Amino acid sequence: MTREELLGAEEAFLTNTPDGVVPIRAIVDGPEIGNGRPGLITKLIRERYLELVESLK
After folding, report:
1. Do 15 and 34 contact (CB within 8 A), yes or no?
2. Dihedral through CA 49, CA 15, CA 20, CA 11, nearest 10?
């Protein structure tokens, strides 16, 4: 993904093992991504991820 694509995105997120699903709100030297808040898709994926993690405990 290019910087320009990221800046044009309505929402973006990163995933990793320790933090799960993390919204990208802005980038260094750039404006906010979307409206600067987690978007609907990010929230849904994060919610499902947390449900799965809890079910495995």
Report:
1. no
2. -70
Q: Token pair of 35, please?
A: 């409206």
- Tell me the sheet residues that pair with 26: 32
For strands 13-16 and 20-23, give the pairing: antiparallel
Angle at 25 between CA 31 and CA 22, to 5 degrees: 155
C-alpha to C-alpha distance for 10 and 12, rounded to whole angstroms: 7
Query: Along the 57 residues of the chain, how does pLDDT read in single tens digits?
Result: 898 998 899 999 999 988 999 999 998 888 899 998 999 999 999 999 999 999 999
User: What's the pTM value of the predicted model, to 2 decimals?
Assistant: 0.80
